[in-house]
Amino acid sequence: MEQSVELAVKRAIMMMQENLGEQLTVEDMARAAMFSKFHFSRIFLRATGVSPGRFLSALRLQRAKHLLRSTKLNVADISLRVGYNSLGTFSSRFTRSVGMSPTAYRRLAGFATHIPIDRSGRLGQPSAARVSGEIRLGPAVEPGLIFVGMFPDRIPEGRPVSCAVLTEPGCFHFESVPTGSWYLLAQSVTEKSQQMMWDHDAPDQRISVATHGPLTVRSDTVVEAELTLQPAGTLDPPVLLALLDVRPEASTERGHTEPRPLLQTIGRRQFPWTRACRPAA
């Protein structure tokens, strides 16, 4: 990507972050990037993988997550601060994207006990397709719990159709993947990062991300992919899905005081796995 284009998109994102309580238009964002509206929309999509409007919506919810964890503001006030005029709209979008309501997110201090899988068939029908791959760490990434899931969009939000949690870099394998177009999205957060309450708003956040796709999955598809985790940057869409709690006290509360190998055997190979991904009720 040309450096001038990247800088223009970053200017637009900075303007979004500074005005989340305002009703911004694509024209406002394009003006900050110093491009025409139509050219800006094209270069933004190419740089981030999502439209300017989708990125802005994700930033609003990301800031709401930060305010729910770090302040005592009520949910109605937070919704106004991040640009929502309707509390009902804010609550429904937050719940759909993060995986829990704003009230539950605050009560759980921003942590998820498990990641529910979408088995409704609404996003695609189960098939004989298989997707497998390997997660690697980039040079600046600290080891930590790794989540990898398949989503219909470039932004990791809502319920994945398949997912796994790895205790270390390595292989993953998904069976009976629904037909459709999917993104493989991986993210990792260390215990130290969670103690610092990671967020794109915080300069010391240490979330690492990787993406692959879109993948077109048909009933007999066999896909292999490699993903390399890199520190999340300005151009990476915010991680909206509530991540698993990796703090030691959380493991103790769940009855696990020692790390345990999380492996499932498929054929003659073993893949890191945990029950943290469960079919949705």
TrEMBL record:
Signal sequence interval, chain numbering: none
InterPro entries, A to Z: AraC_XylS_family_regulators, Homeodomain-like_sf, HTH_AraC, HTH_AraC-typ_CS, Tscrpt_reg_AraC-type_HTH
Protein name: AraC family transcriptional regulator
MF-aspect GO terms: DNA-binding transcription factor activity; sequence-specific DNA binding
Keyword terms: DNA-binding, Transcription, Transcription regulation
Source species, domain of life: Bacteria
Organism ancestry: Bacteria, Bacillati, Actinomycetota, Actinomycetes, Micromonosporales
Domain HTH araC/xylS-type: 10-108
Record keyword Transcription regulation present: yes
The species this protein was found in: Salinispora arenicola
A Pfam family this chain is assigned to: HTH_18
